[in-house]
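Batch job 17 of 40 flagged for manual review because the log was empty.
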Amino acid sequence: MRLSGIGTTLRGLINTGGNEPTLDRKRRVKRLPVPSKPIKTVLWAIGIAVIAGAIDLGLPAEDMFRAVRAEIRTHDAPHDIVVVTVDDKTLNALKADVPDRKQDAELIDRLFEAGATRVFFDKAYADPSNAASDAAFAKALERRDQVYLGAAPKSEEGIERYEVMMPAKLFRDRAKLASMVGEAGPFDLSYRFPTSEKIGDETIPSISAGLAGYQGPDRSYRPDFGIDIHSIANVSYIDVLNGRFDPQLLKGAAVVVGQTFSGSSDRHYEPLGSKVPGVYFHALGAHTLRAGMPVDLGWIPALLLSAATLLLQATRRAPKKRVSALVLAALLMAPLALDYLSIGIDVFPALLCLGIGLIGLERHARRMFDETTGCLRVEALERAEPDPSVLVFALKIKEFSFITRNSSNSVIVDFIKEGARRLSATEGGVDFAFHKDTIIWLRPKLEPGELTEHLAGLQALFRRGIGHAGAAVDIAAHIGVDENYNASIRSRIATAIQSAEDALHAGTHAIVANTEYLDVRDKRLTLLSDLDEAMARNSVQVAYQPKIELASGRIVGAEALLRWTHPEHGAVPPEEVIAMAEAHSRIDDLTMYVIDTALAAARLARQIDPKFQIAVNVSAIALTRVQLIYDMTFLPTFSK
């Protein structure tokens, strides 16, 4: 169907003071889904992050981040838990490798006399020593019911297997037990301690839980390294035996006794720090529990935030950098704020998800949209699934390259954006693509009458010139519409563009390409190819209409007339042949073919009558071309 004029004004358009018309808000079209939304990219990012979280793939990075946060909020430990250190000073004074158990018994009495509430030994006392010392230590345990000796369940570490470690029966019957075990993370960047351990049929508290007086459910927790481990109160073993310490230090305190001398194997790296005796880790854990059992939210909450952000970003043309930056800042800053509340959260899977997803969305946006103009790429639009509910529009800006020939890229972009902005008045929810000199878009199907009015409205949008390079430029816009709903979008876009091109050559405002139009066009293209071949074989005829002198009745000349009989379609009307040649840049070739043929006939006629004249009709389009004058200059001449 061909529309040769603007027709009636678009229903609902309001022209305000000569400005471009705008469509009533009630009739604005809904945004069509952009083809190939990157949901798969988002789902892949989420899936990878879930796997990473499930297998603790980012645990070293997570622990490093946690250690950095701990350094930021470092603070001193309270003095209600005291470490009694079996240090080099003690061993030198005792002139022994370890204190004797008789001295341990004396230590217990001294500690309770000073006001200690509970005493824990980070040592199992599994093997007997000399009988006198063992007996003295056993009697001290009988006198004090708040003494805990170390124990450890059976465990494996790599290829090493460790059996249950328990105090000797002599001591086990007279003391309580506390677990000495803890678990170090990769590269000693983090640690975990249980609140209790089951050894055989007995469940015993951990040293840290016992020191803290923890009474809650069995849990595993991370000690808070925001507490400066070096600020934990301590006193030397030998100073306690000799009474050389501040009595207030131990009053009301829980005490843990452990080895700190330089040869001890019980040393571990604090995160981002130096090696520290293991007994201090128990004290650190106790301080953590006294502040409240840490809540570990794990990696799922942060991942949900990242996933929600990506799903939201996937609904946009391109990821909003501000939104992404805010979520990234939240993932990096929220853990620090939560640390102050003893709430732990893992963010590595969320960061992984956000990073992979945003990279995928950015790449998708670059494939889908032109970064400069913000318009859809035609290649992206072509990938859309066939949709019988949409029309395909193509608006060709006549002489676009001429208008923008001396303009910078930014000026050209502004020109394109202004054209798309005007179209948005009627196609408010549509994504526009720009290709060479043509704006392309999809919009919901319209009834024939509505389509006619809609096309008229689109033309009205471009009646006023577009501001360009500091001036208003009048432009001519020609529209092609594809109605072949069952074809692929790629094919329909090509058809719409060609229809806009045909509208330009035909001098009409719009052409709607339906099945009938395509059949005619396909036939025309076939005829065009056959016309080229017919001219090459000299099978296009030229008929001659005689010119008669009325006074004498003598034939004095003739008018050359184009005639072409197609082998399949029969006689093709001359006006159709000429229109086809004009529309497809064949008019010069056809004109010269007729002139050559007519001149050959004129040569023969003038041999009989030297005054015989032949007239040749020339297309108005051909007359505008300088090439025609050049070609005729070199035609063979003949005598009058």
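Reviewer: the log was empty due to a logging misconfiguration, but the result itself is present. Residues 75 and 227 are 5 Å apart (CA to CA). Unflagging and moving on to job 18.
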